[in-house]
Write a structure and sequence with these properties.
With about 120 residues, the chain is mainly alpha-helical. It contains six helices and no strands. The protein has one domain. Helix content is about 60%, strand content about 0%. GO terms for molecular function: nucleic acid binding.
Length: about 120
């Protein structure tokens, strides 16, 4: 919810909206990882949501498998990309950047694996 939405709903006297911390998906590293895991599960277990009951152990194993698909190198690249992500969000005045979502994550990983560059 934006600060202007907050003011409309509760009125300006209800709460000061002078400072609102960033809530950008570009700056939320774990969302990038969760999205990658979700994509992995959808790609490797396409029938998972088909209404069939699964055991807790089965689901736990699928989630672990998806977590294991994210390499330590992927996590390092993600962490190393944070300064560039901060700059991109600042340059975009909080708007969308090239770092949004899983597609950017995957594209950069594929490029890096092909030409051995570092970055995310």
């Amino acid at each position: 919810m934006s600060s202007s939405t907050y003011d409309i709903r509760l009125g300006p006297e209800a709460h000061s909206t002078d400072f609102w911390p960033a809530n950008s998906p570009d700056l939320n590293s774990i969302k990038t990882v969760w999205n990658r895991m979700k994509d992995y599960i959808q790609r490797h277990h396409p029938n998972l949501g088909g209404g069939k009951q699964r055991s807790t152990d089965c689901l736990r194993n699928i989630v672990k498998e998806s977590w294991d698909s994210v390499s330590p190198e992927d996590l390092v690249r993600l962490i190393e990309s944070m300064p560039a992500r901060y700059e991109a969000v600042i340059d975009a005045d909080g708007g969308p950047t090239r770092y949004q979502g899983l597609k950017s994550f995957q594209a950069h990983v594929l490029i890096q694996r092909q030409d051995k560059t570092v970055g995310f």
